[in-house]
Amino acid sequence: MDHEDVRIPSVVLEQKVRLLEIAAAELRSLKPDRAVYTKKGAIFFRTDRSAAETSVQEQIKELRAKAMQSSTS
What we know:
This protein is α+β, with helices and mostly antiparallel strands and 73 residues long. The chain contains 2 helices and 2 strands. Belongs to the prefoldin subunit beta family. InterPro entries: PFD_beta-like, Prefoldin.
């Protein structure tokens, strides 16, 4: 079974979106020059706040697209 074929319940997707929205709000509350760490796989990488926020926003868009796709199917 392909990973893309597995359907995630919309409630779970909405919870994940909500957690990412909270993470984005927390990132916005930091000073602009503050260094943050992002997790990629099992490793944390140091990055700036704007790059981390962009990454979180992309994840939110992906999850919302999955939620829309699953609701239309």
